[in-house]
Write a structure and sequence with these properties.
mainly alpha; elongated
C-alpha cells in the first residue's frame, strides 16, 4: 500500500486527507465548544483547564473518525484498481 501513496494519485490522496482533516476539525471544534457554551450556559472564560482538555480530546477523536469515514470512498476511487474498457 505504501508504494501507491508514493504515486501522483497517492500524493493527491494524502493532500485530500490533510485538507479533509482540517475542514472536519474546524467544523467539529466549533460544534463541540459552542455546544458546551450553549448547553450549560457556561462562557469559556469560566471553563476549567480540564474542560478544555476534555473538549479538545473529543474534538480530536471525532475529527479522526469523520476524516476516516470521508477518506474511505475517496481512497477507493483514487487508489483502487483502474478499469480498462478494452
Amino acid at each position: 500500500m505504501r508504494h501507491k501513496l508514493r504515486t501522483p494519485e497517492g500524493k493527491k490522496f494524502l493532500i485530500f486527507v490533510s485538507v479533509a482533516f482540517l475542514i472536519v476539525l474546524s467544523i467539529i471544534s466549533t460544534i463541540t465548544f459552542e455546544g458546551v457554551v450553549d448547553q450549560y450556559n457556561l462562557p469559556m472564560s469560566q471553563w476549567e483547564t480540564s474542560l478544555f482538555f476534555i473538549q479538545g480530546a473529543w474534538t480530536f477523536l471525532y475529527s479522526i473518525v469523520f476524516t476516516i469515514l470521508v477518506s474511505i470512498p475517496v481512497g477507493i476511487l483514487m487508489l483502487g484498481p483502474k478499469e480498462s474498457n478494452a
